[in-house]
Specification:
With 69 residues, this protein is mostly helical. The protein has a domain of 48 residues. Helices cover 75% and strands 0% of the residues. The longest helix is centred in the C-terminal third of the chain and has 29 residues. 0% of the residues are buried.
């Protein structure tokens, strides 16, 4: 049970600190919850969306840095 509490605490500490380029909107989260049958599927899909958003932001940053040189 200690591991779950630790994960929850870490998650709570991240509220308000995640760059919006990596975060998921409430509307997108609701759409995922309505689409998937199981909560775990929704959670996994939300993680994938955040990962994709982060990868997109990283590519945009690299592109911007390469064009400013």
């Amino acid at each position: 049970m200690g591991r779950i509490k630790n994960i929850v605490e870490k998650s709570e500490l991240m509220i308000g600190t995640i760059d919006v380029r990596y975060d998921i909107s409430a509307a997108s989260l609701i759409e995922l919850v309505m689409h998937y049958r199981l909560p775990l599927e929704s959670a996994c899909a939300a993680f994938r969306v955040g990962y994709l958003q982060g990868a997109k932001a990283a590519r945009a940053k690299m592109k911007k840095e390469s064009t400013t040189i």
